[in-house]
Amino acid sequence: MKKTVPEIVSMKGRQRITALTAYDFTFARLVDEAGIDIILVGDSASMVVHGHPNTLPISLEEMLSHTRAVARGVKNALLVGDMPFGSYQSSLEEGIRSAVAFLKAGAEAVKIEGGAEFAPLVRELTRMGIPVMGHVGMLPQRVHSYGGFKLQKGEAIIEDAKAIAEAGAFSIVLEKIPAAMAKEITEAVPVPTIGIGAGPACDGQVLVLYDMLGLNPEFRPKFLKTYVDGWSILKKAIEDYAREVREGIYPDEEHSF
C-alpha cells in the first residue's frame, strides 16, 4: 500500500518508521519491494555514488537526475528528495524553485537541513502543498563549520526542532546527537522524528543504503549496523566471473544460443 505524508505522521507513537536512501532505479525497486516506509534520495549520493569526501559538491541537477531514476522504481514508499547545498540557502525564492523542481522530478516531499533560520521556507513550502522533512543536529552540509562529522549537542538543537515542527514539517531527521536529547525532542514535537546516530527513542530510523549493506568497508561509525558484508560478497562474485571468462568456463553451452 502506498505510503503518504498523512500516514507517516499518523505512525508517531504507534509504529516505528523505516527509511533508507536510494539513488538509482534498481536499488529503489529493491528497497521499495522490501517494504521500507520512506525512501530518501539523499545528498549522500555525493559521497557514495560520486566519490566526493562530503555532500557539498553535488548539484541540484545531479540530485534531480537521481530523483527521476528512483521515482521510476518506487511504487509504495514515500519518496523524499534531499535539497542539496546551495539550492535553498540564498533566498526563499530559490528554495521554492528547488523544491518545485524536486516534485516535478517525482519526489513527494523534500528534506531541508537547518533549524529556525529555515522555518520561513518550511512554512511557505507547506503552505504551497510541498511537504517538508526537517533535519537538525549534525548537519552534513555544515561539515566545515564543525571540523568534521562530529556529534552535536546544545539546547539550540531542541529549539530548532520545535521551530521546524511549528513551521509545518511533517517529520524531522535527528542526526548524530546524544540519545537523551533525541528522546527529549521526540517527546516535545508532534511529528515523527527519524534518527541516524540518535539512539532508540526516535519514531523511526534512517541509514544510507550502501552503508547498511556493507559496501564501504572503511566506514564503520559507532551508530552504523551493517546487515550484510556486501563488499566481500559482490567482490567474490566479480572475481568468479573474471576467473570463468579467463578460463573459458563462461559462457558455456547453457548460456549460448
Q: What secondary-structure arrangement, pairings included, does this model have?
A:
Elements: H1 5-10, E1 17-21, H2 25-33, E2 38-41, H3 45-48, H4 60-73, E3 78-82, H5 92-104, E4 109-113, H6 119-127, E5 132-137, H7 143-146, H8 155-167, E6 171-175, H9 179-188, E7 193-196, E8 204-207, H10 209-212, H11 230-246
Parallel strand pairs: 1-2, 1-8, 2-3, 3-4, 4-5, 5-6, 6-7, 7-8
Helix pairs in contact: 2-4, 5-6, 6-8
Short description:
This protein has 257 residues and is α/β, with parallel strands linked by helices. Helix content is 40%, strand content 15%.
Outline the structure in words.
- Strands 1-2-3-4-5-6-7-8 form an eight-stranded parallel beta barrel, surrounded by six helices.
- The chain is of the alpha/beta class and 257 residues long.
- Helix 5 packs across helix 6.
- Helices cover 40% and strands 15% of the residues.
- Helix 2 links the parallel strand 1 and strand 2.
- It is globular, with a radius of gyration of 19 Å.
- It has two domains: 5-226, TIM Barrel (Alpha-Beta Barrel), CATH 3.20.20.60; 229-257, no CATH class.
